[in-house]
């Protein structure tokens, strides 16, 4: 039964992608987006059985994976393969935004913020605590991975010791010794190649300075139980 349903869907997609006039969408209900066989900046959209040909905004392309805006993804994240462009891909630039949609640095120096552009309007976004913007990945990164621009000690506010006593609890996690963040029950510092990284405990856990691990609040020292 599943093979039959898959065959029907495949035939429907083939009709959708090849016919000059489309009688109906493969699915009668909901919203589905389908790859255009020839154009990287366009796609077919079915909304409750109604078919439309959609065009991605400037700076966006379609791959069926990203959904930055109207099912389209950032152009740098899409592999078009043999698909061409149906529209002019020249950047429609505005101040701080190369394309109408995109992610860009807001500084030429080390920064914990970046700009996310939508319709040519830049909006400042913040990296998670302890991270900095890396233009190479269009996202946030450990500062020790961007040493050409960043000083991890300045970003984290901590200098890793040059040596760690073997009998200390910090050494238990060697070669990545851990340290508490004064006054912060939800984060810790770990040293990687003698550079500090700020780590956040997840899943509602808190940092236990005695064990240097993230634990359930009821198992942590009293100061971090609330």
TrEMBL record:
<feature type="domain" description="Chitin-binding type-2">
    <location>
        <begin position="157"/>
        <end position="226"/>
    </location>
</feature>
<dbReference type="GO" id="GO:0005576">
    <property type="term" value="C:extracellular region"/>
</dbReference>
<dbReference type="InterPro" id="IPR036508">
    <property type="entry name" value="Chitin-bd_dom_sf"/>
</dbReference>
<dbReference type="InterPro" id="IPR051940">
    <property type="entry name" value="Chitin_bind-dev_reg"/>
</dbReference>
<dbReference type="InterPro" id="IPR002557">
    <property type="entry name" value="Chitin-bd_dom"/>
</dbReference>
<dbReference type="GO" id="GO:0008061">
    <property type="term" value="F:chitin binding"/>
</dbReference>
<protein>
    <recommendedName>
        <fullName>Chitin-binding type-2 domain-containing protein</fullName>
    </recommendedName>
</protein>
<keyword id="KW-1015">Disulfide bond</keyword>
<keyword id="KW-0677">Repeat</keyword>
<feature type="domain" description="Chitin-binding type-2">
    <location>
        <begin position="22"/>
        <end position="82"/>
    </location>
</feature>
<dbReference type="Pfam" id="PF01607">
    <property type="entry name" value="CBM_14"/>
</dbReference>
<keyword id="KW-0732">Signal</keyword>
<feature type="domain" description="Chitin-binding type-2">
    <location>
        <begin position="94"/>
        <end position="152"/>
    </location>
</feature>
<feature type="signal peptide">
    <location>
        <begin position="1"/>
        <end position="19"/>
    </location>
</feature>
<keyword id="KW-0325">Glycoprotein</keyword>
<keyword id="KW-0147">Chitin-binding</keyword>
């Amino acid at each position: 039964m599943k093979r039959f349903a898959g065959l029907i869907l495949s035939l429907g997609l083939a009709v959708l992608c090849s016919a000059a006039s489309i009688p109906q969408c493969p699915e009668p209900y909901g919203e589905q987006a389908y790859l255009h066989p020839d154009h990287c900046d366009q796609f077919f959209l079915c909304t409750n059985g109604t078919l439309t040909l959609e065009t991605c905004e400037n700076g966006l392309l379609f791959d069926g994976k990203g959904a930055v805006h109207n099912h389209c993804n950032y152009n740098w994240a899409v592999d078009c393969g043999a698909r061409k462009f149906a529209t002019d891909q020249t950047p429609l630039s505005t101040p701080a935004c190369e394309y109408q949609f995109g992610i860009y640095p807001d500084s030429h120096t080390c920064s914990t913020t970046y700009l996310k552009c939508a319709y040519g309007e830049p909006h400042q976004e913040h990296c998670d605590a302890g991270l900095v913007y890396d233009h190479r990945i269009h996202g946030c990164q450990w500062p020790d991975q961007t040493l050409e621009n960043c000083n991890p000690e300045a970003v984290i506010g901590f200098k890793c010791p040059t040596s760690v006593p073997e009998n200390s609890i910090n050494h238990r996690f060697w070669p990545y010794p851990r340290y508490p963040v004064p006054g912060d029950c939800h984060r810790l510092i770990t040293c990687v190649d003698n550079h500090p990284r700020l780590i956040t405990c997840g899943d509602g856990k808190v940092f236990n300075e005695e064990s240097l691990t993230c634990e359930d609040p009821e198992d942590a020292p009293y100061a971090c139980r609330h």
